[in-house]
Design goal:
The chain is of the alpha/beta class and about 325 residues long. The chain has ten helices and 13 strands. Bound molecules: uridine-5'-diphosphate.
Length: about 325
Amino acid sequence: MNILVTGGAGYIGSVCVEQLLNAGHGVTVFDNLSEGHRSAVDPRAKLITGDLQTRCDIEDALEATRPEAVMHFAANALVGESMTNPSKYFRNNVVGGINLLDAMHAVGCKRFVFSSTCATFGVPDRMPIDETLPQRPINPYGESKLMFEQVLRWYSEIHDLKYVALRYFNAAGASETYGEDHRIETHLIPNVLKVALGQKEHVEIYGTDYPTPDGTCIRDYIHILDLAQAHMLALTAPQSAKYNLGTGGGTSVREIIATCEKVTGKKIAVVEKPRRAGDPPRLIAGSDKVRAELGWKPQFQDVEKIIASAWAWHVKHPNGYGD
Ligand code: UDP
């Protein structure tokens, strides 16, 4: 297929682009390079630098490429930042997304795969989090993604758009070539690995008084190659759907740090801090629906293997993409 990938220069987008190309698809990346990196774009893909806030940028890109499907990764995705700058989240994640859908409608492109998030569920009443639970976000990031899911529902009814929304849990790990390099790193695993690389003195633990066995937050870490696989399957989904995407396993912040020590052979210094605003204590995916309906099967069930792939990438790229 001929596919346009927004945010294809970012962490998850870059790996999906690589996997799409490996599977024989043609790919155009649309990215404003605010968070992404030019060198994270697979050289087999075409890169269009543009911004979803500027309607003519995305209209021109779609007019020029006429894709059969769009994968939409371009978004802001930091819970903490969204609690201080909600406007950025609603503008980029909702308004930018609507500009994209309208431009797709204008050229008759009717297939869409959306990067949604478990943050749309807030603090759920039970675990694991399956698709039947109510969505009650507790931060603007989750709210912005939920709003866009609702936009998608109406565009699919009114404009006959076929979409799949994939609600990721915690993306982690790397492919052999592409990995995680945010200009300001807030994520747990890369921050711990920076300590192992000697680039940071310690990692901070945000909250040790959560109602969990060791007092730290529990997350479901999913390998980006498994995420990429789900995107590929979503391209041919017979009907519009929303799926939760995680391994079903839960790992605490302290367990992540201990596993990083094991994988890297380095001692990780920690400093305990208060809770970070907007963080639910425990998020674990119920992914039976995507396994049953799309035949998705994660290859990386073991967080140690996920961290090992991230570590291999960081050792090879100690300064990330270097820009
Ligand atoms: N976290 C932490 N120290 C860090 C970064 C994150 O203790 O330097 C915690 C964070 O509070 C959350 C978990 O690690 O409970 C995962 O956070 P991350 O930012 O990686 O992903 P999120 O769950 O916010 O998408």
